[in-house]
Design goal:
Blueprint lengths: L6 E7 L3 H15 L3 E7 L2 E6 L11 E9 L4 H8 L11 E9 L4 H14 L3 E4 L8 H7 L5 E7 L2 E8 L2 H9 L9 H10 L7 E4 L6 H8 L3 E4 L4 H15 L5 E3 L14 E4 L11 H22 L8 E11 L2 E3 L11 E9 L5 E10 L1
Parallel strand pairs: 5-6, 5-7, 9-10, 9-12, 10-11, 12-13
Antiparallel strand pairs: 1-3, 1-4, 2-3, 4-8, 7-8, 13-14, 13-16, 15-16
Helix pairs in contact: 1-6, 6-7
């Protein structure tokens, strides 16, 4: 379905494509934004929406580019690009490249952009590329002030205007007194899957030093967390309060049942550190899985009474790969009839250990 007054964009998902698509869809549910999504080439999708989201609010999107032309015919392209601002930075010196994926019009656009930059009196150097630059490469080259990227995918010509700045997110993580264990990108993704929004009351069990908590606080949510790392999370909370110059609504509690009224909590988000044994034999792993199963089952028995009906329940479990064999805890031993299973997404990782994200809700 096409929604009136929408704009066209090309969105480039990260390597966990299924997770990225699901995250985007759940995030747009929070915003109540109608949209359409159609694959163009591998992880590049045509995205139609009234207002494109900011990439800083998404954990698994690499690029968002605005579409300016959709025709393969030179005369139609010129008509579509007439009076379009293809470069709007303050600097009159820039470099640029074209990411070309299955197009037949690259030569035309090379000539067109050369003339365009001459027309606006901008000294622009065209850089031919062999591979798609990473987002880190773009920032290193000076994006967006002195470096510009154009995408040419089939007949779609677009200018990249928003790029994930993983390096900057990492710098922010490193400013905390204690290093956050859940990467910012992953924390953002889990919170989007849980529909966390301003004024929500959420539960973060096994919070460690607070990675998920501080991302939730950035959304003006109220967070109730349990952790064994009391000194570290309090130190991080003090830093966060000083940085934001406001009191953080992060409540570190011994348990949840005493800190929430019936059906008062909007979501639960959980990504514990599992501390898997170095010797990953079947016997050792199944012993560990029994501990994880008991940990989660006990948690859900405690918190489900204080969750709102249909409240999102997002949690992770480890996957251990041994050759062709895959070992992980059994979900049927963890959730009961009070929780409805909706979906799961596997995430591969190095060294044979990955995670499964479970998307559930209170029944």
């Amino acid at each position: 379905m096409f929604y009136p007054r929408t704009m066209q964009y090309i969105i480039h998902f990260g390597k966990e494509e299924k997770l990225a698509k699901r995250e985007l869809q759940e995030y747009l549910k929070i915003k109540n934004e109608p949209h359409t999504l159609k694959q163009l080439y591998e992880r590049f999708y045509l995205f139609e929406i009234k207002n494109a989201p900011s990439i800083k609010h998404l954990g698994n999107v690499l690029r968002i580019a605005q579409v300016y032309s959709t025709s393969p015919l030179p005369e139609e392209i010129e008509a579509e690009l007439k009076d379009k601002e293809l470069y709007n930075e303050s600097s009159n010196v820039t470099s640029y490249h074209i990411v070309d994926l299955n197009s037949t019009t690259k030569d035309f656009y090379e000539d067109y952009l050369k003339e365009y930059f001459k027309k606006i009196a901008c000294k622009a150097m065209y850089k031919k590329i062999k591979t798609i630059p990473t987002t880190e490469d773009l920032y290193r080259k000076g994006f967006p002030r002195t470096y510009t990227e154009y995408l040419l995918i089939k007949d779609y010509f677009a200018k990249t205007n928003d790029v994930s700045n993983t390096k900057e997110r990492k710098k922010e993580e490193e400013k905390f007194p204690y290093q956050r264990t859940t990467p910012t990108n992953f924390a953002i993704t889990l919170l989007n899957l849980a529909h966390v929004k301003p004024k929500d009351r959420i539960i973060v069990p096994f919070a460690g030093i607070g990675s998920l908590c501080f991302e939730a606080l950035d959304r003006n949510a109220t967070v109730f967390a349990t952790t064994k790392n009391l000194r570290q999370i309090k130190s991080n909370r003090n830093y966060y309060t000083r940085k934001k110059k406001s009191q953080a609504e992060l409540h570190i509690v011994p348990n949840f049942s005493e800190h929430g009224e019936d059906q008062s909590v909007d979501a639960i988000v959980c990504d514990p550190y599992f501390s898997l044994p170095d010797e990953r034999t079947k016997k050792r792993m199944y012993e560990k899985f029994k501990q994880i199963t008991y940990m989660y089952r006990t948690l859900f028995q405690e918190v489900t009474p204080i969750l709102k009906p249909h409240a999102p329940i997002i949690f992770t479990l480890p996957i251990v790969r041994r050759g062709k064999e895959q070992l992980k805890p059994q979900l049927r031993h963890i959730i009961g009839k009070e929780i409805t299973y909706k979906d799961e997404i596997n995430i591969d990782s190095e060294h044979g250990v990955g995670r499964t994200i479970y998307i559930c809700e209170k029944a």
